[in-house]
Amino acid sequence: MSTQRKxxxxxxxxxRAILDSFRKLNPVMMIKNPVMFVxxxxxxxxxxxxxxPGILGRSSHTGFNIAVFVILLITIxxxxxxxxxxxxxxxxxxxxxxxxxxxxxxxxxxxxxLRSVPSTELRKEDIVVVSQxxxxxxxxxxxxxxxxxxxxxxxxxxxxxxxxxxxDFCSVTGGTLVVSDSIVVRITNDPGxxxxxxxxxxxxxxxxxxxxxxxxxxxxxxxLTVIFLIVVFTLKPIADYLNxxxxxxxxxxxxxxxxxxxxxxxxxxxxxxxxxxVTQYNVLAMSGxxxxxxxxxxxxxxxxxxxxxxGNRMAAELLPVGAGTEAELANWAxxxxxxxxxxxxxxxxxxxxxxxxxxxxxxxxSGDSIEFKAETRMSxxxxxxxxxxxxxAVDAIRRWVAEQSGQIPDDLEAVTHRVAVAGGTxxxxxxxxxxxxxxxxKDTVKPGMKERFEQLRKMGIRTIMCTGDNPLxxxxxAQEAGVDDYIAECKPEDKIDVIxxxxxxxxxxxxxxxxxxxxxxxxxxxxxxxxxxxTVSAKEAANMVDLDSDPSKLIEVVGIGKxxxxxxxxxxxxxxxxxxxxxxxxxxxxxxxAIPQMSVLNVMKLGSPxxxxxxxxxxxxxxxxxxxxxxxxxxxxxxxxxxxLLSRNLLIYGLGGVVAPFIGxxxxxxxxxxxx
Amino acid sequence: MSxxxxxxxxxxxxxxxxxxxxxxxxxxxxxxxxxxxxxxxxGGMENLIFKLAGYRQREGMDWKKYMVSLLASNxxxxxxxxxxLSLQQWLPWNPDRIGGMEPSLAFNTVIxxxxxTNLQHYSxxxxxxxxxxxxxxxxxxxxxxxxxxxxxIAFIRGITGTGKLLGNFFVDFVKAIVRILLPAALIVTxxxxxLQVPQTLEPAAAIHTLEGSVQRIALGxxxxxxSIKHLGTNGGGFFGANSSHPFENPSGLTxxxxxxxxxxxxxxxxxxxxxxxxxxxxxWVIFTAMFILFVAFLSLVYFSEQAGNPLIHTLGVDAxxxxxxxxxxxxxxxxxxxxxxxxxxxxxxxxxxxxDTLTPLGGLAALVQMMLNVVFGGKGVGLMNMMMYxxxxxxxxxxxxxxxxxxxxxxxxxxxxxxxxxxxxxxPFIVLVPTAISAMTGLGxxxxxxPGYHGLTQMLYEYASSAANNGSGFEGLxxxxxxxxxxxxxxxxxxxxxxxxxxxxxxxxxxGKEPVAESIGTLRTDNKLFxxxxxxxxxxxxxLTFLPVIAAGPVAEFLTLK
Lengths: 676, 562
What we know:
The complex is a heterodimer of chains A (676) and B (562).
Chain A: H1 2-6, H2 11-23, H3 27-30, H4 34-51, H5 62-100, E1 105-110, E2 113-118, E3 127-130, E4 140-150, H6 152-155, E5 161-164, E6 171-172, E7 177-180, E8 183-187, H7 195-204, H8 212-241, H9 248-258, H10 261-280, E9 283-285, H11 288-295, E10 299-303, E11 309-320, H12 326-337, H13 343-355, H14 361-366, E12 368-370, E13 378-382, E14 388-393, H15 394-403, H16 412-421, E15 425-431, E16 434-445, H17 449-458, E17 462-466, H18 471-481, E18 485-487, H19 492-504, E19 509-513, H20 519-524, E20 527-531, H21 536-541, E21 544-546, H22 554-591, H23 609-633, H24 642-672
Parallel strand pairs in A: 10-17, 10-19, 17-18, 19-20, 20-21
Antiparallel strand pairs in A: 1-2, 1-3, 3-8, 4-5, 4-6, 4-7, 4-8, 9-21, 11-16, 12-13, 13-14, 14-15, 15-16
Helix pairs in contact in A: 2-5, 4-5, 4-9, 5-7, 5-9, 5-10, 5-23, 8-9, 9-22, 9-23, 10-22, 10-23, 11-22, 12-13, 22-23, 22-24, 23-24
Chain B: H1 2-31, H2 37-53, H3 63-86, H4 103-114, H5 124-127, H6 130-160, H7 169-194, E1 205-208, E2 214-217, H8 222-231, H9 252-276, H10 280-307, H11 310-314, H12 332-345, H13 360-372, H14 381-400, E3 406-407, E4 410-411, H15 414-440, H16 442-445, H17 453-467, H18 482-511, H19 528-543, H20 547-560
Antiparallel strand pairs in B: 1-2, 3-4
Helix pairs in contact in B: 1-9, 1-12, 2-7, 3-4, 3-6, 3-18, 4-18, 6-7, 6-8, 6-18, 7-8, 8-9, 9-10, 9-12, 10-12, 10-13, 10-19, 12-13, 13-17, 13-20, 14-19, 15-17, 15-18, 17-18, 17-20
């Protein structure tokens, strides 16, 4: 599924985009983009001049007029193509999603009995029963029962997840499959408003609203367009006063070259593609605004468990006490864990393998498993020879041994304390009345997290870790993971307090969450990423939902937000910087006939005035498709300080924007000059 | 010869550099509204003024109220002055019996002086009574300069502060006059009088020449007008010949004093801004960008004047003096180039040489400085325009670091961009459109005395000068006609107030925003890189707009002058 999403272009998509780019020539649609609309008007004027020569002043070269018209038309088509292609990619995703939204029959609870109705007729607050092998007909909350649900249609994750009534795992998504058991679901959305529906309309770009930043940039582009309209319109009478004749087609060429067509043509493609990149990460953003806000985040609040650490405690060390040796402790620890399927238990065996230690596996297998119970807080194995092997909380083992009048080793206290101070959890291992030692369980930081946080710091983002652990444990993990700050013994209210405190200091805050009690904090945060596995209220409060329920994706989303803004800035700079070279191509060409001395300004030594104008115009057109890949992919982004980032981008897109057209126009002219 | 030129320019510029910090700090103290020593000296006088005016509750104003107060007070002053000019023949202090002013000229003149432009379509010695010189011209020179200072201070308070209130316009206005302009004008007047500039209410002196005929030598209260004319970046001369007249500007020393006077407040305001922003570096960045542009334009004027006119060289005239046509021998090329560069940078508009006779590229430098209107600029306005480019630069470059743009901790969003759109649009609009109209109608180009490329430059210069509220004339344009009086009158009005309103709106909007925290990911606006960005933005967005007309005017003239 995910590879399918990432495939950028298919033949059909390109075909459809080409068709769409002609459809978008409709002036009614065009006017939404003022820059390209001006180009279209210009093309029409040139067409008029072509069909009725002389209507807009003298024109000596019909061939030239035709060439200008064709290039202008192509310029518009290129811009339309960029937008259509971006939309096409979104549509492809939407189509894929639609497949999951099949019409299913639902068992609706009516009065005391059940009635079979199509899923499209379900309304909010309806109650349905879904059994093994059936598809859940709509988004809702489980009010009775427990089931394992296959959510691969949404998340791409093939392993089923357990969903049950009450608690944080009660929300189900329409279009997912119940693999076992039966549940009663209360529908939470009317048709057309479900999660998938919203997702479809968002990726399709149909409901795309322009973000505040897009509006601001659009204003700048519009005003530049108006300024250059004034420049070109006033040039005509001024030139007349000097008895310099300027042809309509040349003036329109100058206008089109000067207005920011490059960014104007690519702006909406950049926005759509940005949303699309977020979706490729399987994150559903409720608006483009949320993605942009992610780029501005100053503070990131991350849950420790599941985000920074694996959340399960892993055996990291074996610490013998009293007369026990490490080998003995290893042997008994492993035997006690033989039947323990918890991650902690597995990690004990893994640690032995890693250290090359051995244990008597045959002996272990011959015993009876003693499961963990909340009262005893121990688990282990009863061996056939009557020996009982146990591991568990230190105080539980201590009590158990004491009951058997066993000796408590003097150093147990000290070892236990040492583990606790280091942020670990100690598990004692005993055989009957003898305590052999302590297993040091450690919460393990996910690999690569430290580097990620380092990157975030370079981007100027502060990370705060929230954990329910005691301050000691929290401090250790915080230091190990390299987060900037932590909140120990954190309650959901504490998160809101932190968010408010940071926001009061003028910071934008991002956080992840999944539980109902996270909902207020998710709503308060500027960027709230809810896990799809979380509750409905959490998802509603958030402005993004991660379909894979991987909280560390927040970091990627921030990167995408930044990349989106950078792409806009970079292409705007490039577009404006291009004007210098275009002036040097067109201005001498305009005046050279009347003022031969103007040829000193023809620094590119372009072949003839007409070929100079056409070359500039052709460059202006072809730069749009050449930049489509950058618009779709986004400019390259590596976390670094703003200063270096700016210098780098200014060099590439600013200086590059000045230099590139000089080279490009010259090259095109070498070719065009062969004809004129 | 040219070593002395360099020395002269270096000394004049060096003194300005030394004055920036003390003057900037003083202006900050005047307007910071924190009690300080200047209260003890001037507080009493201000309170007396407020008491006489019956203005008791002097509470803060939001940007709209501030703007309305400013516009209202300016309108009242313009109305009074229009009446005074029209009726001057019946009013006292008119020893030379000068008649009332013709309405279109009076319209042009009151706008010209209220907008700090001082475009003069009249000649002072024959067009104005002494009362008009003092009550209209000199008074407006104070009030228009004070208006400019007020708006700049309100703008600075807006972008550096939080809340809603920008201060009280009337308090700022009175402070600007009482604490800054009046004392400075007093000092400069006395200096000028000491250096032989006339200050008298006697009528024009009648002199019997050796030939036996009688020549009338115009006199009047020149020194007092001369001081505020420069301190307030006004530029309207007492005499038609302005600061090239030996009574207005008798020597190299008075020339330097006049350059310092017109430059010092504009040059110090960026420093004041830095103090308000609690980040002096931020102020220096703005100053440096202005200064680099200034040095570039000064070099262009100086070297092209020094190179002279190739057509004259071919006649066998000694070229070592440079282009001396239209220049005063007592100032030479250096003193004239420096004066031209400063007067068009600071949009003063006084001239000590005839800009019409500058070489094409020398005239181009003067023209472009007015087209940009950010190289120091007139009282306050230059700073505001430069800040507008800074916000534009921040907007584009801020995106390039992957954040929605912010300046001084405030986000730049659609509302600010819309207001800035108006401000950047108005300047090319009111320069290019009237030039094009004038090129189409005989009413316009009929005033041109040198048809062709130079004629185009004459018209362009007139509108650029009006739009930037500079007021220097390219002269050579017979511009005292109803057409030119009315066209330039409207251009001056729009040039002054539209961008003021838009930019004060930006300040008001930014002030109301919650400040955002600064981090390593924030675009820094107080370093060398941003200085470069600022200059780049000014040149890319400001200058590119005017390139075609410049190519058709001065550049074409330069290229064909061979």
